[in-house]
Every structure is written in structure tokens, then in C-alpha cells.
Amino acid sequence: MNQRIHKSFKLNGVSHNEQSLLKKITSNKDLLFLKSLIASWFATNNYLEVKTSGSTGNPKKIKIPKVDFIESCLLTKKTFDLNEKSRVINCLPVDYIAGKMMFIRALVLGLDIYTFPIKSKPINNIKNNYDLIAMTPLQLANSINKIERIKNVIVGGGPVQNDLKRKILSLKNRIFETYGMTESLTHVAIKNLTNNEKNFHALEGITFAKKSGCLLVNTPHLSIKKIQTNDEINLLSKTEFSWLGRKDFIINSGGVKINPEELEKKLNQSYDQNFIISSIADEKLGQKLVIVFEKKIPPDWIKSLEKFEKIIRPKKVFCLNKFLYVNGKTDRKYVKNSIEKLSN
């Protein structure tokens, strides 16, 4: 097998080798988003540069050996029983690891990969049956009426809310909530939501430990053998855990991880009063981004947010009479708990 492209690889039902695939991508404006990823994968160097999402610390660019991508692909193949005839869908941006991995799996394993719209309702026009799709919880919630056309659904990027979990129980296909990060090349653990599983279970060969209250992932199939996360967990065994929440203040909204302190720095010149960026629970997004002011809401608070992309723009405003401060810093947990009560 050519480790860069399998002889059975297909894009949207059409077979390709390296040359024909690059030609197809560069000549089709709807496929140009793949150009950088595919060119990097075919390049002679032995690594890909990817950007971390914040699961293990501040987001940063790292170089991961291509052999690690191949090992991850083989583990996914075994976990979800994929073969050279499998038809898979990508509806995620390839700027991030989940979308990257869908295409690399297809290239390495010889899958037939179909490009669907990268939007909140990606499979509205689905007409055929498929073997695998990766989605965010929001995409799944918006696709629940048509999702049974896909044998295996892996959903990640944020927690699946209870209302969506209840809907999944009546489905006949297999829906898995996944746990993973850029450093582990996506999933290292899965939870079968169709079977109403409550905890995450390790993929074959992977084990877990707990350090300082947070999950430590042992990944013997990768070059990096241990990955320390910032996720607080209840460790049930070396292959099973339940997720409790983030140790840091990262907000996960619709699968996008947002550092509230970074947004606050950009807004500091806009307001002459105390404020913080926080979040409230949301059935579709998991967490909805909000802005909270102390004492009063400035009349121009909305205008100051227009500089941000819509996906990282606070969706709601709150006001508290007084923030609680600990060692001179705003107690974020106190503010979050207070606005959660106001929103209920």
C-alpha cells in the first residue's frame, strides 16, 4: 500500500491517484479548501503541522509525524469496522484535526469520501447510505431525522446534551460520542449513545490515568506516549472514565473552544467598567457565549462586539450588581453560577 494514497481511494465516487487528485482539487473551486491539506500530505517531509485546540493547554502549532496519522487511521478502521468499500462523509472544516483526519483516513485506508456542506445542517440533501460521518453535537441535533442513513456517527468537539441523547436512543444506527484532541489525532475513547452508555471507553491499546485530578492518556501507538489534559475526570478503570469538566476556563461552544481571557483583552479598551466573558448551558451549543457586566450594561455593548467573528461573538448580555473577587481576580465560577440562575 502506498502510505500516502491507497489504490482504492475515491473522492465523491471517483478513483484518484496523487496526480489526478491534485488536478481535480485545483481545478474545482468547491474543492480548493482541500488543496493545502492534500499537498502537505503528499509532500516528502515526514510530518504535518497542526494547530491544537486547547485541550492540553494554550492553543499552539505542533508538528506530528505522518506515521502517527497512519497509526490513528488503522485504529479507527478497527474500531468502526471500515474497509476499502466503505463510504464516508466529511462535513467538518479541514483547518482543524477532525476534518483533517476524515480525509487522511480516506487516503490511507482507501475509503470513498464524499464532501458535504460544512454548515450546521450538513446532510439535508442526503440520498444514499454511508458507513461513517464525524459531526459536532450541533450538526447532529440538526440532522437527527436523516442520520439513520449513516451506519456509524462519531460526534465530538463538545458534550452531547441530554435532550439530544434522548432522541438518539430511538435510532437504529450507531451514534458514538468521542473523546480526543489534536495531540491524540482525534478519538482515544468512545461512548455508545445508542446503547445509553454513560462513560467513555478506551480504544484498543489505549489506557488512562489520573494526575492532579485530570485525565492522562497513554497512547502507545503514537510517537508521544503520554498526553496530559486539562479535563477533570472520574477514573473508573484504566480503560474507562466519566468526564466532569474543564479545569481551566476554556468555553466550548458548538465545538469551538474559546479562551474568554483572550476575548477580554481585545475588549478592554471598549468598556470603562468591569466585565467578563462567560457562558451558560445551551441544548444545541453545549455552552452559549455571553458577556457579563458589573453594575450596569453600557449602551454600546453590542457595537463593540462586531469586531469578532460571529462564531466567537457573545450571544447574550447579563448584569450583576457586584462581582466576587478572590486575590484581586474576578471569581469566574461565582459569576457563572449567578448567571446560570438568572437564565433558568
Q: What would your notes on this structure say?
A:
This protein is of the alpha/beta class and 344 residues long. The chain has two domains: 10-246, 3-Layer(aba) Sandwich (Rossmann fold); 251-343, 2-Layer Sandwich (GMP Synthetase, Chain A, domain 3), CATH 3.30.300. Helix content is 22%, strand content 33%. It is built from eight helices and 22 strands. It has helices at 18-27, 35-42, 66-79, 97-109, 137-141, 162-168, 260-267, 332-343; strands spanning 10-11, 14-15, 47-51, 61-65, 87-90, 112-115, 130-135, 150-155, 174-181, 186-192, 200-202, 207-211, 214-218, 226-237, 240-246, 251-253, 256-258, 275-282, 286-294, 316-320, 325-326, 329-330. The strands form five sheets. The chain has a 13-stranded mixed sheet. It has a three-stranded mixed sheet with strand order 18-19-20. Strand 1 and strand 2 form a beta hairpin. Helix 1 packs antiparallel against helix 2 (35-42) and helix 3 packs across helix 4. The chain is globular. The mean pLDDT is 92.
Percentage of residues assigned to helices: 10-25%
Shape from CA axes? Answer: globular
- Tell me what the CATH architecture of the largest domain is: 3-Layer(aba) Sandwich
Low-confidence stretches: none
Run of helices and strands: EEHHEEHEHEEHEHEEEEEEEEEHEEEEEH
- Domain count, please report it: 2
Main sheet: strands, sense, barrel: 13 strands, mixed
How many separate helices?
Answer: 8
Beta-strand proportion: 25-35%
The CATH topology of the largest domain is what? Rossmann fold
| Computed CA radius of gyration, to the nearest angstrom | 21 Å
Sheet with most strands: strand arrangement: 2-1-6-5-7-8-9-10-11-15-14-13-12
Mean pLDDT: 92
From the N-terminal CA to the C-terminal CA, the straight-line distance is 56 Å
What is the CATH class name of the largest domain? Alpha Beta
Under CATH, the homologous superfamily of the largest domain reads ANL, N-terminal domain
